[in-house]
Amino acid sequence: MLYTVDREPSRYPAYLLLLRRQFQAEPLAWGLIRAETIPEPARLGCIRGGFDLLHDAPTLEGLIEVIRAARITEGPFLIEHIRLGRHAIKTHSIEATRALADALAAWPDLNNPAVRFALIETPDHFYFARIQFRLPRPDPSPFIERPWGYSAALSNELALTAVQLVASPGETLVDPTCGSGTILYEALKLGVKAWGYDIHWRWASGTRANLAHFGLTPPEGAQWATVADAREVEFEADAVAANLPYGRRTSTSEEKLEAILTNLRHRARRFVFFSGDALTPLLTRVGYSEIEEVDLSKGPGRQRFMSVAR
Three-state DSSP class for 8? Predict the structure, then answer.
């Protein structure tokens, strides 16, 4: 199967890491992957379409010849032209789809097709596929309307991806620097048993207020977020997901960051961290393993990295 993926530059590397780790996805171009069947693709939030690959070739002319020889009789049909990659060839859509239509052994019907095909064009290859599904871009998360927030908060899209990288429904996850609660919100929506801590009373109480605003109530006698220092907090969980302090509003010294990571190392089995600098050297030094890191930076002064580890 081929899948198209949300191509937003500051999130795409995180999506690709998730798809590669969970579904052994092979990147073919910016926004296009090959993978075995992905169950419930809509839940991932990053898949935009699924396609059964029929034929491919390095040139459009070569693809047309292969299709003509294959004698494809499915119809009536419609052909969509999809350009992917950062430097697409930009073949003329009408001419390309007309040439493909002429190579098929069936009739087109733009108004009521029985089958929908796609010509997927990348900078160095052409793919002809049967469209299985197309997914619209998800609506913005309701959490953007939370009553309490701050500028260093993680986007809901990245928070969802982070949770899916390290936890499954029914498992436990802790965010030891929970801020306004974005990671906890996405985890709880997925059925992960999540709770958090923050060193600042205002942020911990803000998390509780935000989650309550969306009807999320903790078990009796518990709280979604309590005040605690991530360098000293004690807990046991399947996973840790944290947007570590960095940037102008929440930066911390490397010494404190090392203390946080050292403490968390023995609290869970799987970890995902967001940070303002590459963490691999520090994670390695304090004993993490199987580290993978992607650069999600938006440009100078807007650096962000995501690191997954055990």
Answer: coil
Domain covering 142-309 in this structure, CATH number: 3.40.50.150
Those residues of the chain that have pLDDT short of 50 are 247-249
The CA distances from residue 300 to 84, 141, 172, 195, 218, in Å, are: 26, 27, 36, 33, 40
> For residue 244, which of 234, 254, 232, 235 has the smallest C-alpha distance?
254
The 10s digit of each residue's pLDDT in 34-78 is: 999 999 999 999 999 999 999 999 999 999 999 999 999 999 999
Tokens of 269: 């089995």
> What is the rounded distance in angstroms from the CA atom of residue 181 to the CA atom of residue 137?
23
- Which position has the token pair 């999540």? 194
Determine the residue type at 293.
Answer: E
Question: In what helix (H) or strand (E) does residue 109 lie, and over which residues does it extend?
Answer: none
> Strands 2-5 and 32-34, how do they pair?
antiparallel
Q: How far apart are the first and last CA of the chain?
A: 30
Tell me how far CA of residue 178 lies from CA of 102, 149, 185, 243, 250, in angstroms: 57, 11, 10, 7, 12
Interatomic CA distance for residues 58 and 143, integer angstroms:
44
Q: Among positive and negative, which fits the CA dihedral 250, 251, 254, 256?
A: negative
Contact criterion met (CB below 8 Å) for 187 and 143: no
Residue 275 near residue 204 (C-beta atoms within 8 A): no
- Predicted model pTM: 0.92
pLDDT in tens, 106-141: 999 999 999 999 999 999 999 999 999 999 988 889
Residue 177, both tokens: 């620097």
| 2-134 has CATH 3.30.2130.30 classification | yes
At 56 the three-state DSSP class reads: strand
Q: Where are the domains of the chain?
A: 2-134, 142-309
Tokens, residue 291: 């580290």
